[in-house]
Specification:
This protein is of the alpha+beta class. The protein contains 16 helices and 22 strands.
């Protein structure tokens, strides 16, 4: 039995994801769909396979060259797309005198192809089409004897079936296909029917079949199959039955979170979205940095399985409690401080151990915390997304640029380099059995150790008192000095700079998320963040240092008060 896999299409409905990756190489549970289909054909008894290519043909050819399937698997490049009929005719010399199997590359199925091939030998029709029941695509109409009447029925009252993209074809059909030009195989089948030939349907029972032709359909299948694979990897057994998906509340990012359950076992899936570019993506950083930190003994959720292309990562389920919830429900400030001390000890270890052996090319967006990041992602972000977009002010970035340049220079000059999480706040620290675990570490890179400390202590979600912040700062520096030699005064100056840059980033994010993303619940934390920024400017930088920034912040506080009053009136 020889077979052909149709893989020449542009994947237009899957753009922009097919700009760099042809759709046959989209992955399901870590394996290319093309690989899944080749293996199914091999298992069904195929003796040789040919794959037609066009869009990104060299990528597919390289993939095939890197794999050994135990049978000949060759590619045939079409300089112009020929359609299914034209593709079959184009490789006429590949076929022998036996019926051959033709399959689409953009489907995922467990249909028994050997059973289909046996069925074809049991009747005299030159073609067998495999059909299934899918309400989204049903359009093929049959007679009672299983022969096809119509391919694209528009009669909603007429029972119809879906063509799966799997057919078995007798070589005689090739005689009806014109050579050297585009040919739609359905048109050929219709001509055969007009000439009195029957096209036979094969309908398997209890089968799995999915079309992967759109991002939504591909993502749905990728999630389901990745979840099954993750349960198999995590618990050394096949996940029998359905996987239940419970969508979890997200935060500031566009990623989707799910708690998934199979037979009473749970894990968490994070969906970063289908890959669009060849550059380092957020999911790459998530997986690579997470793997690195785990090897350093840093408390993170275990990664059970990851499919980098589909953007899916399955993680240990750490439960539902994060640090913010603990702080808000704590019986006393002492309980809060005691837990933070435990977290700070873990942070010291992460900052030092995470730095060792860290590869800059793992980082997403920028390889390190550098001048450009400070100026663009923190300072300009604050001006454009908070002062102007959210507060409705008309502040020119240029008017503050000298002060921002000074801030960036001082921050980097006073930096004590280590691994930097960059979003270490109370919602990114989970608590399981009283132990803290760091999550959302994909923004990690090399940067000032002071930054994560400042991020944790000025965090508006937790709103620690100034006394607690001061105590915990001193505690952290003592713990850090046990591990490495530090200049405490220099470290504190660097901390002051990082407290400002982080605060600017926080307010920029709150402005962007509430205005551009419609996530108004972030507004509740703006007063704390804004007052913290004003207090730290006054405390750490007295006199005329950052005078323009201080003026802008004071105006923003007045403006924000007006916004809050108007907002309350609207709510009433």
């Amino acid at each position: 039995m020889k077979a052909m896999i149709l893989a020449a299409g542009f994947g237009t409905r899957l753009m922009p994801h097919t700009a760099n990756t042809p759709k046959p190489l989209f992955t399901i549970a870590g394996r290319a769909t093309l690989d899944w289909m080749i293996q199914r054909l091999v298992d069904a008894g195929s003796t040789a396979i040919v794959i037609n290519t066009h869009h990104l043909n060299t990528t597919i050819e390289s993939f095939i060259a890197d794999h050994n399937y135990g049978i000949p698997v060759k590619t045939c490049h079409e300089s112009e797309i020929l359609g299914t009929g034209g593709a079959l005719k184009n490789v006429e010399g590949f076929w022998d005198d036996q019926p051959f199997v033709v399959v689409n590359s953009d489907i995922f199925t467990d249909i028994d192809l050997q059973a289909v091939y046996r069925f074809h030998h049991e009747h005299t029709s030159p073609v067998t089409l495999v059909l299934c029941n899918d309400s989204e695509f049903n359009s093929v109409v049959l007679r009672e004897d299983g022969t096809i009447i119509d391919f694209f029925s528009k009669d909603a009252h007429e029972p119809a079936w879906t063509f799966t993209g799997i057919h078995v074809v007798d070589p005689v059909v090739l005689d009806h296909i014109p050579p050297g030009r585009f040919s739609n195989i359905i048109d050929i089948y219709r001509k055969l029917m007009l000439q009195g030939e029957n096209i036979q349907a094969y309908i398997p029972h209890h089968t799995l079949w999915d079309d992967l032709g759109t991002p939504a359909r591909y993502a749905r299948v990728a999630r389901r199959e990745t979840a099954k694979k993750a349960f198999e990897q995590a618990f050394a057994g096949i996940c029998a039955g359905d996987v239940d998906f419970d969508k979890l509340a997200g935060d500031g990012s566009d990623r989707k979170w799910f708690r998934i359950n199979c037979q009473g076992r749970t894990m968490v899936m994070v969906d970063h979205g289908i890959r669009k570019t060849d550059r380092v993506n957020e999911v790459d950083a998530f997986v690579q940095i997470g793997r690195h930190l785990i090897t350093k003994g840093i408390p993170l959720p275990k990664t059970y399985f990851a499919d980098i292309f589909s953007g899916l990562v399955c993680l240990e389920d750490l439960g539902n409690q994060h640090l913010q919830q603990f702080v808000l429900n704590a019986d006393s400030e002492n309980d809060v401080v005691d837990l933070y001390k435990k977290i700070l000890r873990k942070l010291v270890h992460m900052s030092i151990a995470g730095f060792q052996g860290f590869e800059a090319d793992w980082a997403w967006q920028t390889p390190a915390y550098d001048r450009e990041l400070i100026l663009e992602k923190e300072c300009r972000y604050f001006v454009e997304s908070f002062l102007n977009l959210y507060a409705g002010m008309d502040v020119s970035y240029v008017d503050l640029s000298d002060e921002f340049d000074f801030l960036a220079g001082e921050t980097l000059a006073l930096s004590l380099k280590g691994f930097m999480h960059r979003d270490l706040q109370s919602r990114n620290i989970m608590l399981m059995a009283g132990a803290p675990y760091f999550i959302d570490f994909q923004g990690g890179r090399i940067g000032p150790m002071q930054y994560d400390l400042a991020s944790l202590l000025i965090d508006p979600y937790a709103a620690l008192s100034q006394d607690s912040q001061d105590f915990l700062f001193d505690y952290y520096t003592r713990e850090l000095s046990r591990k490495i030699r530090i200049d405490t005064k220099r470290f504190q100056k660097g901390y002051a700079c990082c407290a400002l840059t982080r605060n600017l980033q926080i307010l920029g994010a709150f402005g962007h998320l509430s205005k551009n993303r419609g996530k108004a619940y972030f507004e509740a934390y703006i007063p704390v963040a804004l007052n913290t920024l004003r207090a730290n400017l006054k405390r750490f930088f007295p006199g005329n240092v950052f005078i323009q920034l201080k003026v802008a912040v004071n105006k923003a506080i007045l403006k924000y008060t007006d916004i809050s009053v108007q907002f309350k009136k609207m709510r009433q």
